[in-house]
Amino acid sequence: MNITTTKKRIQELRNQLHYHNHQYYIQNHPVIADKEYDKLMDELIKLESDNPELFDPNSPSVKVGSDLNIEFTQIPHAYPMLSLGNTYSEGELRDFYNRVEKLAGQQVSYVCELKFDGTAISLIYENGKLISGITRGDGEKGDDVTQNIRTIKTIPLVLSGDYPARFEIRGEIFITHKGFEEMNRERAEAGEELFANPRNAAAGSIKLQNSSLVAKRPLDCYLYYLLGENLPSDSHFKNLEKAGEWGLKTSPQTVKCDSFIEIWSFIEKWDKSRNNLDFDIDGVVIKADSLKLREKLGFTSKSPRWAIAYKFKAEEAQTRLISVDFQIGRTGAVTPVANLQPVYLAGTTVKRASLHNADIIASLGLHYNDLVVIEKGGEIIPKITAVDSSQRISCSEPVKFIDNCPACGTPLVRIDGESAHYCPNNSNCPPQIKGRIEHFIGRKAMDIDGLGSETVGLLYDNNLVNKVSDLYNLSVGELVNLERLGEKSASRIIQSINNSKNAPFQRVLFALGIRFVGETVAKKLAQASKSIDGLINATEMELLEIDEIGEKIASSISQFLNDAENLKLIDDLRKHGIKFELDPELTKTVSDKFKGITFVVSGVFSRSRDEIKKLVELHGGTNVSSISSKTGYVLAGENMGPAKLEKAKKMSVPVITEEEFLKMIEI
Ligand code: IVH
User: Fold this and answer.
1) Residue 658: what are its φ and ψ, rounded to 5°?
2) How far is CA 70 from CA 73, 243, 415, 640, in A?
């Protein structure tokens, strides 16, 4: 293909993919099969990577994110991002209503919207293209998170129709319940800390410094506030309808109301049925519809006089505490869980509540049989927020945190600075062993089919599997002898165990279950170290030099790989043919020019930073994220932070420009 045809094809693919994104994510009405979509996307990605000069930040391929560390810069808001006055009372809402009517001097139309419980964002579109995404920050200026925002599937990069040349639209980034559960399940599998609720998860995700990680988070958005000089209508409601026509995602629940009764019935409806939504709302926002009227009403120093938030009370219920279980996870962490007298709360019957850790139990002053208040605030399981000690049954015992592991009896330990207690008996504590086996066979790890947690329990209880390497010694005969397993399923399991020997190194690394080494970190480690021996021989300092690896992860890896038992396990697995080296195809280079040389790539370049990093690797070099005296070069683009330049100078690390770098590799 010559360059003109390539350019044309790229444009065609971009147009088609923008259209399909809109159909799929905004309209919920896909018109092609996923496979066909993937084919178009693969073709686009290939053409773009072969022709980096045709890079466009608004290409649909950008949705997959980039592996580079973003340093957020602060950008002032064109209009301050204020918050809303709020109330929990019908009387105060009526006061707001009467005040607006009085100041308007006439009957007013209102728009009622859901109050989404996420994190606020301001988007700017120029000539139909997304040019920036800024967080609320302090209301005057926020962080420029454009690169992260570009990865969110429901935020279009290009618009269609009769949009104004430049406008701002604000809204809320959130995570659905389904997305949140899936995300926390994956974090639990990786031994990572769980997010407390979807709001924290959304706010944390949008501030991640690596947009390819953001692309993996199930972020969604609703947009609810247009700003600009040339908006289509004086009516907020009509402007939102227009925004929908341009391809922006607005809420289908928004309604126009012309009386207090209508407003109140909208509030009552959503207070009752908010549990039917797949995302969290914490109230309803009531806004005057006319922009002219809004101007007349103006703002106080903190919030507009033309809008108010009516907040729902957190859903609470009272019940009695029956008992407390202390569960041991695969890392040995102890989680106290309260067993409750079943009680109906926010759409489900609750039987268990989280007690988090020893400090929380102590601060609640919890006794057995206490009447407790439980609250559902989007957390994974409800939490106990208060104890009604006036209702305490006399001589009931206080809940005491355990001193010994309930499974193996080993005295528990508490690591400095951490709130959790741990059972240190990693090698012999049954729930830890079973948990590690379950993690090892997981879909994202060795992907061994047919072995659920029950079968793992049976294998362990029957002394057939005590460590993950024992899986590879199993025979069909042994499995058939277990309860509930027929010949056919047994053969399938053995087949699947054998197939797992083909799992690539990065999945094996994840499967080992090293604390804090999730799927993405495992990938980074595999790429940087190329083999398990590379990792075993690396010092903690060297691990810290790998892109994205911080102190917590480095120390956990080093601890794991310095343990004789773990090394023996790796050796056994290796003997069974498990892959402990990166596929040579993935490590191919075009020259050895930068062999043994590390690069810190920072700032903005004429080609994408991903590409620059790829070029470093293609010539045998390694990318690291922070500057040390061992760094070979700092490759500085535009806008590189002054602190990094200063550090490079201090450590006498040569700083080179993109041009100088390209010359070195003769491009
Ligand atoms: S309008 C001038 N509409 O609530 C304020 N805000 O407590 C304009 N929020 O910062 C905001 N849903 O992050 C508006 N439908 C909605 C909303 C909403 C959620 C958030 C927003 C705002 C906060 C104020």
Assistant:
1) -60, -40
2) 9, 29, 32, 10
DSSP-assigned letters across all residues of 426-444: TTT-HHHHHHHHHHHHSTT
**Separation in Å, CA 184 to CA 153, 192, 201, 306, 379:** 20, 9, 9, 39, 11
Any ligand 1 atom below 6 A from CB of 324: no
Phi and psi angles of residue 60, each rounded to the nearest 5 degrees, phi first: -60, -20
Ligand 1 centre to CA of 238 (Å) is 18
Give pLDDT tens digits for 582-607. Answer: 987 766 788 889 988 999 988 878 77
pLDDT tens for each residue of 245-261: 999 999 999 999 999 99
- Ligand 1 site, residue 224, Cβ cutoff 6 A: yes
Closest to 431 (Cα-Cα) out of 325, 527, 291, 541: 325
Q: Is the CB of 220 under 6 A from ligand 1?
A: no
N-term to C-term CA, the chain:
22
Q: Is 113 in the pocket of ligand 1 (CB under 6 A)?
A: yes
Supply 417's token pair.
């600075």
**Which strand (E) or helix (H) includes residue 9?**
helix 3-21
Distance 329 CA to ligand 1 centre (A): 39
pTM: 0.61
| CA distance linking residue 255 with residue 257, whole number of Å | 6
Burial class (CB in 10 A: 0-12, 13-18, 19+), 233: middle
Q: Which residues contact 436 (CB under 8 A, 6 or more apart)?
A: 330, 467, 468, 513
